Amino acid sequence: MRSKIEKLAQFIEESKKTVVMTGAGMDTESNIPDFRSQGGLWYQVDPTKVATVEALEGNYPLFHDFYTARIKNMENVKPHEGHYALAELEEKGYLKSIATQNISGLHAMAGNKNVYELHGNIRKIKCNDCGTRHSLEDFLDKKSCNKCGSHALRPDIVLFGELLPTDTWDRAIRDVENSDLFIVIGTSLQVSPVNQMPYIARGRTIYINMERARGYNFDLEIIGKAGEVLVGLKEVLSI
Ligand code: APR
Ligand code: ZN
Q: Minimal CB count within 10 Å: which of 9, 52, 103, 118?
């Protein structure tokens, strides 16, 4: 593993435009379960029953219970060493931006400024009908929309079947296209369109994950824990 981390450090030093993309595997060391590993969230709950617009519109009590539990489970989560390592990389000019599938907000909490939240942020609440922003408490207390009276307040996240926020996606994909180093961390690459990013990157591509992903041809794969790899990278770069 060490020699691969040294190789990655060399690529980073050679790169002028490094972009990172993260998935739920970046947050498991902050005690947020991922979705598709053994024991992940989708082993416990059928996503089609809770993480879709049909669920939101057809069974609001179940939808509300599920996202209330996820919000409460994230109340005390904190960034781990790996998140802080990515913030250091940005601070020291080694990293241009992070495109994340995660809705936890942990990259921004760790200090990264250029973060594209491709699937939104669970702590941001909006009205499903008119889009008016509301507080987390309004959602948790099942308040109605203070503008249109709708009862469907929801986290501002991308549910299955919904489009990603266009401007965020466009800016993220432009960074990936223009990157000369694209590092993918902690994602099974099973959900589109984000799983197309490695094919769009024109420079070197790196995969840091606990397990391999089929159908990709990364220049370097480091099979290991995101936190350990990123802390090792920080040491090699002496930042
Ligand atoms: N370090 C590195 N990799 C890890 C770690 C870790 N500490 N923990 C888990 N992993 C890996 C797992 O092996 C798995 O391949 O992270 C990957 C997580 O994959 P998923 O659970 O499928 O999560 P993700 O790829 O982010 O899912 C994408 O699917 O359900 C939707 O909207 C949801 O954003 C999510 C999207
Ligand atoms: Zn409304």
A: 52
- The residues spanned by each domain of the chain are 1-32+78-119+164-239, 33-73+122-157
Say if pTM beats, i.e. exceeds, 0.85. yes
pLDDT, tens digit, 9 for 90 and up, residues 119-173 = 999 999 999 999 999 999 999 999 999 999 999 999 999 999 999 999 999 999 9
User: Which CATH superfamily, name and number, covers 33-73+122-157?
Assistant: SIR2/SIRT2 'Small Domain' (3.30.1600.10)
Average pLDDT score over residue span 35-57: 94
User: Which ranges of the chain would DSSP assign to H, the alpha helix?
Assistant: 2-14, 41-44, 47-50, 53-58, 60-73, 81-91, 106-110, 136-140, 166-178, 197-200, 226-236
User: How far apart are the CA of 23 and the centre of ligand 1, in A?
Assistant: 5
Residues with CB under 6 A from ligand 1: 23-25, 28-29, 34-37, 40, 101, 119, 186-188, 190-191, 209-211, 225-226
